[in-house]
Amino acid sequence: MERKHPGNLFVRDCITEALFKLMKSKDFNDITASMLVKTAGVSRNSFYRNYQSMEDIIRQYLIERTSQWWAEYLAHLHPNVIEALFQHFLDMRETIQLLYRSNLSHLLMEHIVMCGRESLTGDVSNAYQTAFMSGGLCGLTNEWIMRGMRETPKDMQLLFIAQGNQAAEES
Predict the structure, then answer these.
(1) Which of 26, 36, 107, 117 has its CA 20 to 30 A from that of 129?
(2) In sequence order, which residues have a C-beta less than 8 Å from that of residue 159 and are 6 or more positions away?
(3) Based on the number of CB atoms within 10 Å of its own CB, is 71 exposed (0-12), middle (13-18) or buried (19 or more)?
């Protein structure tokens, strides 16, 4: 649900911050709406007015963070979008680690695929290329996170390119 009223944005921010705070000390599946709204200092109606589930909070957060990142990327036009994307993930390290500890890595992968789909032009070949790239990016990102995000964003960009080149050579 897209709500832009400043008061509503404040409520959503409170709910999001409260969820991540609770996730640091509790299992995600043990967090209730009652706990969440109490921690956020908002009404139960505020939660249900903005979200259908706890996972929706995270989905919306990822959309907002990626939108901010994309706007900054376009403003500065970093020469390598993949390197910039991995830097974005590195900047979100604490949140991403929370997602993985809570067995919610699928939300990040779902988000990567969704972002790829938004770039579709309607051309069939573009659809398959986008699916291939999104899938590869999901796999590479997941492995990088599972290994502790040790490689630099530049290293990850080079790995992404190398894997794409290898796939092209093998076909």
Answers:
(1) 107
(2) 140, 151
(3) exposed
CB 33 within 8 A of CB 47: yes
Query: Considering only CA atoms, which of 11, 31, 8 is closest in space to residue 20?
Result: 31
- Interior angle at CA 94, CA 15 and CA 157, nearest 5: 125
For the stretch 33-58, pLDDT in tens is 999 999 999 999 999 999 999 999 99
pLDDT tens digits, one per residue of 110-130: 999 888 776 656 666 778 888
Neighbours of 51 (CB within 10 A): 21
Token pair in block for residue 80: 């390598």
Phi and psi at residue 104, to the nearest 5°: -120, 25
- In angstroms, the Cα distances linking 138 to 2, 115, 126 are 26, 11, 18
Q: Cα(69)–Cα(143) distance, rounded to whole angstroms?
A: 22
